Amino acid sequence: MSLDLERATHLPASGTTGSGVRQRLRVLAAGPSTPDRLRRLGAVLVLGCLLAGVFSLVDGTARTEAVHEGGSRIAAVHADAAELYRSLADADAMATSGFVSGGQEPAQIRARYDRDIADTTARLVHAAGLLPADDPAAPALATIAAQLPVYSGLVESARTYNRLGYPLGQSYLDSASRLMATEILPAADELRRLQAEALADAYGRAGSAPIAVLLMGLAALAAVVDAAVRERRRTQRVLSVGLTVAGGAIVVALLWWVVAMSVASGRLTEAERHSGIADTLDEARAAVLQARSNESLVLVARGGGAADSGFTAAIERVLGTISTSGLLDAARDAAEPDTDDRIAAVRTATEEWMTAHRRLRELDDGGLYRDAVASATGAAPDGSGAAFDRLGTVLGETIDAERAAFRAEADTAAAALTGLAAGPAVLALVAAAAAAAGIGRRVEEYR
Q1: Mean pLDDT lowest for which of 50-54, 197-201, 303-307, 367-371?
Q2: Does residue 5 lie within any of the structural domains?
Q3: Domain-located, residue 14
Q4: Rounded distance, CA 289 to CA 144, Å?
Q5: In the predicted model, what is the mean pLDDT of residues 21-38?
Q6: pLDDT tens digits, one per residue of 300-349
Q7: How many CA atoms lie within 13 A of 307 on its CB side?
Q8: Is residue 330 part of a domain?
Q9: What parts of the sequence cross the membrane (predicted)?
Q10: Measured CA distances, 246 to 47, 222, 433 (Å)
Q11: Measured between alpha carbons, how far is 427 from 429 in angstroms, rounded to an integer?
């Protein structure tokens, strides 16, 4: 028996080195002896463990990078886009509000407008530094950057003519508002929408089920278990230490993936939900600001209640109508109980502003223009201006709370994926080494 094994497993000394290597490979691939079979088995087990490690490393790295990019670059640009939209809409609302008083606009309104323009400029610079040149959102950002100086110039011209008492200022103000409504705000909305889609795509990739990794890991585990069972039956031994360690390492790697992905997927889903609510409330805030701008424009133009349709349409978009749901309804449907209370507060503040706006329109339509202006610009608690400011505060606090919840969930997901790129891959290498050692020990027994 030993002589047969020796002939089967040892090559003749004659011949070149190349032919000797080829003959060894042929014996390894087709040798009929038990050591040859064990070597083939060991090669299969090592290859399976290494493939499982490669799949784990590639997939884990991709998911970790997706979460990191989503939580850092994409989230930052998304936040910039949302703040761009808000500051632009607020700047337009303040520009029109400043004309209501006639002549010199109130200092606090001018300061708020200037702050909005400065914030917009800073956000543009920050977003441009983070956005790749070939990103689909780059043209929208370029549109805002190109049109913002034009808008600011029209507003300044309108102010100049307004201070001089020339009616031409109204024409410049109308042109500026049209530019904001038709080009700048749609570009900001496009930027925000595209970044929201990019964020959802990144988190979708990161939180999807790791089918390939689990299948490869289970296949490697099945091969190790099968080899261990067969060797136990053949040798009547309890277990092979090497194969047991290999199987244990693969099990730990698979459990690592299952636990990490279960936590990360749930947190990413919650992060997307909070981000979606914040986006919906951002749209509501923009609609409120557009309604404020319309309220001021109607007062400046002395257009009367017939020109108030823009305000009504904007507020109906926020609150909805008898037959249609509004933005606050959509936010409430996606919210949790604690957020419901905040959204209810936003609805209450919106309705209070609507009531104040109706009183303003009654004053204006009744010929009490100065009283209507005082309602729009004064600090009286029941005035339209004060009600608008209260609504803006409540909306801002609610949006900030949702964005903070988004960041917390995203950070938790990132923490859950910590080590996923390298940890299971290292365990797969341990499994490969242990499987090779376990099989090698069996081969040594035949020498």
Answers
A1: 303-307
A2: no
A3: no
A4: 18
A5: 58
A6: 776 555 567 788 888 888 988 888 888 999 998 888 877 788 899 999 99
A7: 14
A8: yes
A9: 209-229, 241-259, 413-439
A10: 13, 11, 8
A11: 5
Instruction: List the domain range (segments joined by +) for residue 132.
Output: 34-444
DSSP characters over 51-97: HHHHHHHHHHHHHHHHHHHIIIIIHHHHHHHHHHHHHHHHHHHHHHH
The number of distinct structural domains making up the chain is 1
240 near 231, Cβ under 8 Å? yes
Average pLDDT, the chain: 83
CA distance to 38, 275, 355, 396, 432, per residue, from 352 (Å):
82, 27, 5, 17, 69
Q: Confidence class of residue 215 from pLDDT cuts 50, 70 and 90? A: very high
Q: Where are the beta strands (DSSP E) in 84-220?
A: none
Contacts of 325 (CB under 8 A, 6+ apart): none
In a domain? residue 87 = yes
pTM: 0.78
Q: Contact at 8 Å (CB) between 439 and 41?
A: yes
Measured distance between the N- and C-terminal CA atoms of the chain, rounded to whole angstroms: 12
